[in-house]
Amino acid sequence: MIGGPFFVLVVVGILGTGLMAGVFCAFSTFVMRGLAALPPAQGVAAMNAINVAAVRTAFMTVFTGSAVLSAMIAVVTFVVWPGEGKLELLLGSALYLFGSFGLTVVANVPRNDRLARLTPGAPEAAAYWPTYVREWTFWNHVRAVAAGAAALVYVLALT
After folding, report:
1. Number of domains in the chain
2. Is 49 exposed, middle or buried (0-12, 13-18, 19+ CB in 10 A)?
3. Per-residue pLDDT tens for 99-128?
4. How far is residue 82's CA from residue 90's CA, in Å, rounded to a whole number?
5. Secondary structure, 3-state, the chain
6. What's the CA gap between 47 and 137, in Å, rounded?
7. In terms of C-beta density within 10 A (0-12 exposed, 13-18 middle, 19 or more buried), how is residue 159 classed?
8. pLDDT-based confidence at 80, cuts 50/70/90?
9. Contact present, 81 and 157 (Cβ < 8 Å)
10. What is the C-alpha R_g of the chain?
11. Which structural domain, as residue segments, surrounds residue 25?
């Protein structure tokens, strides 16, 4: 069984990935639906404001901290190679690092950057808004599932 400081590391990893799953789920299930219901100019302006507000200490600490914890769990697993739970620990780390953190970098952030370059009331923004909502939300669903699955398999590693 996993114990000592490694146990604490995994528990904190569970909390971080679980919190991120909740954030992603909230965005997919009601924030994006609410924004999509707004006129495009208002939706674009609101999402741009959210994207600026997200890059603050509270969110970034949990988001990037969970990535750092996942990487640390993977490294410690390789170095210590615990008798039980090693597959779950490595899978949980991969799920968060690639399925949540990595997808953010390659799928969601580029869409956010493109949206930020548009003037909310411009025809280009109105034309892009439905595509943005659909694509961004799809990838956010994937991030939510990956973060939730990471938390779950971390829990399984401890059982």
Report:
1. 1
2. exposed
3. 999 999 999 999 999 999 999 999 999 999
4. 11
5. CCCHHHHHHHHHHHHHHHHHHHHHHHHHHHHHHHHHHCCHHHHHHHHHHHHHHHCCHHHHHHHHHHHHHHHHHHHHHHHHCCCCCHHHHHHHHHHHHHHHHHHHHHHHHHHHHHHHCCCCCCHHHHHHHHHHHHHHHHHHHHHHHHHHHHHHHHHHHHC
6. 12
7. exposed
8. confident
9. no
10. 18
11. 4-158
* Two tokens, residue 112: 């956010």
With beta carbons less than 8 A apart as the criterion, state whether 88 and 154 touch.
yes
The two structure tokens encoding residue 159: 């059982």
pLDDT tens string 18-30? 999 999 999 999 9
Write down the pTM of the prediction: 0.94
As given in the structure block, the two tokens for residue 70 are 């996942």
- End-to-end, the C-alpha distance of the chain in Å comes to 8
